[in-house]
Design a protein that fits this description.
Elements: E1 5-10, E2 28-30, E3 36-38, E4 46-51, H1 55-60, H2 64-78, E5 100-113, E6 120-135, E7 138-152, E8 159-160, E9 164-178, E10 183-195, E11 199-201, E12 204-225, E13 228-248, E14 251-256, E15 262-272, E16 277-285, E17 289-298
Parallel strand pairs: 1-3
Antiparallel strand pairs: 1-4, 2-3, 5-6, 5-17, 6-7, 7-8, 7-9, 9-10, 10-12, 11-12, 12-13, 13-14, 13-15, 15-16, 16-17
Length: 299
Amino acid sequence: MVEGTRLESVRLRKGSLGSNPSLSATNRGRSIWGHPINRLRKNRTVPIIFWSGSPMGILRKIDGRSISAAILCGALVMGPLEMLSAAPSNGTHFPERGRIESGYGYNAMFKRPLSHSFGDLSTYDQFYMLTFGVYDWLAVDGQAGLGGITEKNGKLPTLEYNTGFAGGYGFRVKAFENKRWGARIIWGFQHISVHPCDRSINDDKYESFLDDWQLSAVAAKDFYRSGSRVLTAYAGIKGSDCEIVYKLNKHDKKRVSSDRHIGLITGLDIYIFGNKARVGVEGRFFDETALSASASYLF
């Protein structure tokens, strides 16, 4: 929201909108960008944007946060689909600005069909997770740990690589929030990479690593008890492509992508200890069959 604009809720009446006594300073809330929003507490309302000043004057008043948000949202919308994959969405919780949330995460991708008859891919990863609140509407995620890869039912022999390093990163943007309804829309980017140890079969040495990219958009609903948030349910859509890169005897390098690229995300965040800790579980379907679970604490 830029200076020089107001987003106000107006009760629609027959005839002209005219003046409305509900549009007063006493009804003002705040948007996720920190600018005034007026809300009408009764009856049905609709949001109306009121512009003041010339268009060029408004453009000159755009602040840095608006520019940052526009760049991040544009990157999420315009990112190339070939750079997507099937990582966890990291839930819906945003630490307050300058605060950290950390904990343990487990990611199991049971089945991910690969293209060109290369069979199915699965991976099981364990992470130490860290999330930093850059703003109330922007969180940066990082994770590091161990993971393994299994490839089967395809052109290659069944390959079960030994556990090796796994890591990931990403960010999430709170694109919309209505605290009165407990509703949010969250856009995210996630990436996981798994680098297992080499595997030898019949004097052939296989080297491989997995790249897992994803763009996601989820709608979340918060549930409260005694004024405290206890549960968040969310669901959404993701664009994804899981790539495995392998070498046979240090030659013949190949990169194989997943067969499907659009999937469904659904999950729950459960808050305990007065919102100081969170337990999350998430499932991902259609393009893959996967489950993630996490437990974290807010510092």
